[in-house]
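Hi Y.,

Following your request, here is the sequence exactly as I used it, all 239 residues.
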Amino acid sequence: MSGSDPLSLAAHSFLRGIDPRTKLIVSLAASAAVMLPLRPLAIFVGCYAALVLTAGIARHAWRHLSRIGVLLGVLFAFDWLFIGLPFAFLISLRLVLFVTAFTMVFATTTPDELRLALESLRIPRRVAFAFATACCALPLLESEWHAIREAQQARGIYRGDSGMKGWRGWRERLGSTVALMVPAIVMITQRAWSIHESAAVRGFESPDRRPRRQNALSQFDWLLLGGVAVVLLGVFSIP
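Below is the corresponding structure, written out as tokens. Let me know if you'd prefer a different format.
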């Protein structure tokens, strides 16, 4: 399988050479760090940002953040207005870290590498395959959704927000949504069936199936894990 987003896979990042299990552990540690209070959280976010910049995946992290930019701004404004500025920074930093925590995994790991890593962690084969396939399919489904919408607009079926109000506007929006959803569901079903057939042909259900390669942690993996552990111990010890 190809990467979760082949056009944006950070092929030149040093994280490409890191074991996927290491990246999963670091991402889980970043997710757990959202529980920190403001001061240690800000220090951890700074360290995590330095890692993201050094690894050359800042563009990928920014793409994820840009999708919630409006929500982040609204939450910050409301928290500042009704509670206080420190609380607004705390919630914003937690949300930023939570959204970007797994960027290093999805930006530098192909679905096949992720599947093998999950299987080596004793995750059931079906679960690992489904998770890796979903990571690969989401960007593709998003592009197909845009293609369907553009095709419907070219045919005059989907008009977006026509500005009509009341019952007629609601009915028109519902019709446009149905016009998008029906072909999208058909395409998703066809793709899921083709993936199932491809996996069956390749002996996915065979009880004697063995992975073609085994993952092993390198010295750099242990160095990265040790550095993350030191940072976590340091920030958790901050009062």
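The mean pLDDT is 78.

Thanks again,
Q.
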